[in-house]
């Protein structure tokens, strides 16, 4: 179905604001910084952009505000509530709107004071949560109110069935922390992690300790999507979209009743089919990493290692640069930054453009990359890109 | 005047249009489950129609008060994410797989259980804790012989 858009749309600009624990400014300022950086990266003028989109959790600025202060009167704005996998969904929406002829170039952003402002998953009213979550009254009264606890329930069972150990979770963290040491913009740059330290860190909620959990930071990220023809007007090297599967769901309305499958299992089949490639063709990956285990479960779902062999795959160092599947090469959400996945999307674009050529950060000669999103076990998306 | 010094601090399950029969049964220390009359599957949590086949023909079945299960999965939480849990750490949150209806899994805390003793497959049974004058919360305890 998506064959007709294959390689006809491209990501032509990426940019980010400063990241910190306390920005001292508003999400609008962070979004403007990210958007200006992405526009400059693409070699475009702000007025070349006619569509603006963002995802948020009522913690950001609107697309209309952003466009206004870039000096642009947009033809189209869209603000959705969402976290993980929203980057992929909005890119798919942008492609559809450009394909329909309504728009030519779309800027997508995520901007948040995720540390100094509203913190994801904290301080919600318990009664609100019971109503807001599907089946919330069966979960909240038992103290389960954090994604670490919801996803941990999946993790404990999956680890039991597949032989994944705490040490395997540690290998995910160590691989990404190692990447962060090469990235001066990573929040945990200068803070390497050893297995000994990792294993000595007490759990917050089993099987996860602080290293297994993503950062909480203030930052803004932006991505610009346009058509293949329009990409020729840009100064950046275009990264083409080979295939997408934007927003698949777990098959049942309430996911705690079935913790044995995840939405990513359904995304994988479709994204490879649309892109016309197989897992063996992927040179570099950005895998959504809100928690370490989420990476392991997706490695299985996307076919990078067989069920039961995923732990060994990461223990062999395959997620590191030089491994079989260099993953989250800027440090990921565990150690670079956290914008509900968009920072991982920025990195895969930079890798495929060979922006790091000549340094120890570049995945040499990489041609094809995958970027996955995970809103939860219930909702996921992915895209496959090439240079 | 009534004393409220030991008021229950934790969230109390909210009854709604679809889950009311479950919580009404729980208040009487019993388990009730929603069942699809067409495809015969049980739904936990219950919903406005069957999530397996979409049928609107759903009814409720009472399972009484002798409910046995095993631990399907669990987490041990060392931090309170909600009010009322700060004094009972660590909290064991488990998904219980019912012996009689294995397709049904019910979340709950395992009470009277040490962190080191919880494991997948642990036999547990449902118990009910009276949390207010008219509300009771289904919970789990290890089966003791
Ligand atoms: Zn049915």
Which CATH architecture of the domain at 2-118 and 217-231 in chain A is right? 3-Layer(aba) Sandwich
> What's the overall geometry of chain A?
globular
Low-pLDDT runs of chain A: none
User: Greatest contact pair?
Assistant: A-B, 38 and 40 residues
Shape of chain B: globular
How many beta-strand runs of chain B?
Answer: 8
Helix content of chain A: 25-40%
Poorly predicted tracts of residues of chain B: 1-5
Following the backbone from N to C, one meets helices and strands of chain A in this order, namely: EHEHEHEHHHHEEEHEHEHHHHEE
CATH architectural label of the largest domain in chain B: Beta Barrel
Q: Which strand order do you get reading across the main beta sheet of chain B?
A: 6-5-4-7-8
Give the mean pLDDT of chain B: 94
Largest sheet of chain B: 5 strands, antiparallel
Topology order of chain B in helix (H) and strand (E) letters: HEEEEEEEE
Question: What does it look like?
Answer:
The complex is a heterodimer of chains A (387) and B (145). By secondary structure, chain A is of the alpha/beta class. In chain A, 34% of the residues lie in helices and 19% in strands. In chain A, the strands form two sheets. A nine-stranded mixed sheet of chain A has the order 3-2-4-7-1-8-11-10-9, sandwiched between helices. By secondary structure, chain B is mainly β. Chain B has two domains: 15-65, no CATH class; 66-145, OB fold (Dihydrolipoamide Acetyltransferase, E2P) (Beta Barrel), CATH 2.40.50. Chain B starts with 19 loop residues before the first helix and ends with a strand. Mean pLDDT of chain B is 94; it is low at 1-5. The interface between A and B is large, with 38 and 40 residues. The complex binds zinc ion. Residues 36, 38-39, 41, 50, 52-53, 55 of chain B line the site of zinc ion.
Task: Please specify the SSE layout and strand pairing.
The complex is a heterodimer of chains A (387) and B (145).
Chain A: E1 9-16, H1 27-42, E2 51-56, H2 63-69, E3 76-81, H3 86-99, E4 105-113, H4 126-132, H5 147-162, H6 166-181, H7 195-200, E5 203-205, E6 208-209, E7 218-227, H8 228-231, E8 239-249, H9 263-275, E9 284-286, H10 292-301, H11 310-315, H12 332-335, H13 342-352, E10 368-376, E11 379-386
Parallel strand pairs in A: 2-3, 2-4, 9-10
Antiparallel strand pairs in A: 1-7, 1-8, 4-7, 5-6, 8-11, 10-11
Helix pairs in contact in A: 6-10
Chain B: H1 20-27, E1 31-36, E2 42-43, E3 58-64, E4 68-77, E5 91-98, E6 105-109, E7 123-130, E8 136-142
Antiparallel strand pairs in B: 1-2, 1-3, 4-5, 4-7, 5-6, 7-8
